[in-house]
Amino acid sequence: MTRQELIQQIKEKKTFLCVGLDTDLKKIPEHLLKDEDPIFAFNKAIIDATAPYCVAYKPNLAFYEAFGVKGIISFEKTIKYLNDNYPKHFIIADAKRGDIGNTSAMYARTFFEEYNLDALTVAPYMGEDSVSPFLTYEGKWVILLALTSNKGSFDFQQTTDTEGERLFEKVIKRSQQWGNDENMMYVVGATRGEMFKDIRKVAPTHFLLVPGIGAQGGSLEDVCKYGMLKDDCGLLVNSSRAIIYADKTENFAAAAAQEAKKVAEQMAALL
Amino acid sequence: MTRQELIQQIKEKKTFLCVGLDTDLKKIPEHLLKDEDPIFAFNKAIIDATAPYCVAYKPNLAFYEAFGVKGIISFEKTIKYLNDNYPKHFIIADAKRGDIGNTSAMYARTFFEEYNLDALTVAPYMGEDSVSPFLTYEGKWVILLALTSNKGSFDFQQTTDTEGERLFEKVIKRSQQWGNDENMMYVVGATRGEMFKDIRKVAPTHFLLVPGIGAQGGSLEDVCKYGMLKDDCGLLVNSSRAIIYADKTENFAAAAAQEAKKVAEQMAALL
After folding, report:
1. Do A69 and B68 touch (CB under 8 A)?
2. Which residues are CB-contacts of A26 (< 8 A; sequence separation ≥ 6)?
3. How many C-beta neighbours within 10 Å does residue A233 have?
4. Whether B13 is catalytic
5. C-beta separation of B146 from B172 below 8 A
6. Is the ipTM of this complex over 0.90?
7. This model's pTM is above 0.80
8. Which residues are registered as beta bridge partners of A210?
């Protein structure tokens, strides 16, 4: 999906919500466990219920890989279901990959060609040749970790170098030599509030993928106040647990829709 | 596997070779493609041929994930074959994972409990809470990316901070507050030669996983000269392509054994 198509979806639907499909067998409603493929059954119901209120889905690979072959089957079925039924939704594999060139090229082929996903999260630690193999696919995106939502983001990401640049700023600036605002986004945690101002100094036009509202406690208002672009929105704000586990009964899908709708309404007001 | 057990294996077999199982359908001998599971057939033959000359195997997950469910089945069969037949070999999943705490915990469960692997490579960018969930399993290891073998390692890993520390040094020092030399190793590329001296200043006792000899051009002599520990060796040196693709005919396994033996003999002389 191109940047223009994504912006158009956001404007039409008045939402920039991304629903995270972090599907955990321990947290889904008990009655689904009788299903042949409980993870896919849960995802399908969540997708159908929340699709009107979001523009993107983000399955986190870890939750599928944790169940070996069975989990990968559930992942592939989920992706196929999205591709077949919701082609206008932007699909992100949250995989945080990044390896030497020939390996990153393998990952790119898998996620972009085999699964036809729109975007993949990538870790920047190994530098250009670990990222650039993902940038050769038209209409496909790298979403590079910049300033994450977790406590550990203070360990290295905020280290200041001898030129006065923090590591996350260096990642953002340097990576703009490899890609542009039509094939690269950055992950910035919603818990970072005012730091979105600093992010926008170095990434004035790029889309940001923002996890950390909901269970992790970030503020949607702050994210928009400091991070939103005037015309193009420039934000995909993710919520996983607060939406998909809003209810543990047979009413789970309607409850998830309700939560997604609530967030979407806040977003419409902020747009 | 504990540190003492690993050191004992190295001393008994007089080798610290790790064979990388980066199995690529495009590179394996053509006659294997007729097999029901060509990747596993290749791995099994390579493992049986090289086991006497190495102490570790390192399948790179990307090469398996690239083939979806089929690839994961090949991976699981390879791991089971190693666990059943070569329990004294140290098995590393080269996955370069690292995510927020609840996700890293999922990965830890998969790789250490479900697959019973000895070690997992982890990317440090997200800091402590992305790494520490892997450190709670007795006899299991995190192998943290420090100074990688690729060109992109110059982009961020060698950035000097305001305290005069390079990022890879900071990663090594800071992570020693989370783990110790009995549950953590570091990835340092063989192409870094004299920089092993700097590594040993900040990681004087830790094992290092060293990719980059063979196809990537690093020197085994330099790695040992600057990186080897006096009594405990402290090195696992990986070779993938130069060993497993030594020959593309039906003679491939014997050729791989020949290559592995050659490297092991060099290692015995250096120990």
Report:
1. no
2. none
3. 23
4. no
5. yes
6. yes
7. yes
8. A237
